[in-house]
Amino acid sequence: MIKQIAQKIKKLKPAPLVHAHCDGPCGVYDPASARIAAEAVLAMTKKIIALKDSKDDASQHTLARYISIKEEQAHVAKTELLILWTDYFKPPHLEANPNLHETFWQAAKLCSACKVSVSLESAEKLMAAIKTIHGMFWGSKDREVAYYTAS
Hints:
elongated, single chain, mainly alpha, Four Helix Bundle (Hemerythrin (Met), subunit A), 71% helix
């Protein structure tokens, strides 16, 4: 009975057709969350390298925490980048940025590299890739938003 009433209402007053360019409401996408996570990866990588020769128990426990944070934040950065890549960017953005797919693919691979190794070079390349993505993202909105880092 309720189903029949709902069908009659739909027939009498159909909902208007709407379109959206992305999956979430505007304003929820921002590459800043990936940058913040990548900054943590870079910071932890530097701390791990500085601590690598320490053998005492306290240093080993600190090292374990640094590694855990680095791996977790590399995963967060990758997740945030994949959300931007797959949910926000659409064909018109690809036309404006022909290297968009390659840039995101490389950034995601760098997140994985940072997760499984201790490489200052990979962490710095990840930050550079995110800076490029920042430019693509804000350029797609015709806005100039300064890129900055906490350190």
